[in-house]
Design goal:
Elements lengths: L2 H16 L2 E4 L1 H8 L3 H11 L6 E6 L5 E6 L4 H12 L6 H13 L5 H10 L11 H28 L1
Antiparallel strand pairs: 1-3, 2-3
Helix pairs in contact: 1-3, 2-3, 4-7, 5-6
Length: about 160
């Protein structure tokens, strides 16, 4: 397991124990893992983002800290956030693939659902002689529609 994976797991375990919020000291965490504080920054910047369902804030100085708050508790909350805020009117292929991986890893959608969405918005599926900007708009619309369908299916399953 890579160091960044270990740090991520450690923080997520703390979040589970502490409920939805945890405060950490960057330097203490770096000492604990025998790494540079920049490694902690990397983990926070790449794995504890709004796309992953977290908000981070920090205060610098002697009593400085990093606060991590889990903002999306349910899969449907996460899907709603992505549909409303993250995807927007345009979505490039690389971001779409990354979102599929993140959604599957966070169990907001199943792995087969993620693979199906990834295939539907892949460069191969949108291989047409049209400008990339148009493909990105189509990709966003397809992605949102598929996420809405998944969310509706999850609601129907939960309600009956």
């Amino acid at each position: 397991m890579r160091l960044s994976d270990t740090i991520e797991s450690f923080i997520k375990q703390m979040l589970q124990e502490e409920q939805a919020e945890v405060e950490l000291k960057r330097n203490e965490l770096a000492e604990y893992f025998h790494c540079a504080p920049s490694q902690i920054n990397y983990v926070l910047a790449t794995r504890f983002t709004p796309d992953h369902g977290y908000m981070t804030s920090s205060q610098r100085g002697g009593g400085g800290y990093i606060r991590i708050v889990r903002v999306c508790r349910s899969a449907n909350d996460r899907l709603a956030y992505l549909i409303r805020e993250r995807i927007g009117d345009s979505l490039d292929a690389q971001s779409a693939q990354a979102l599929c991986v993140q959604l599957a890893e966070s169990q907001a959608i199943t792995l087969p659902e993620a693979r199906l969405i990834a295939a539907a918005v892949s460069p191969q599926a949108l291989a047409a002689p049209i400008p990339e900007a148009v493909k990105d708009v189509l990709r966003a619309k397809i992605f949102k529609t598929m996420l809405l369908t998944v969310a509706q299916q999850k609601n129907q399953s939960a309600n009956g």
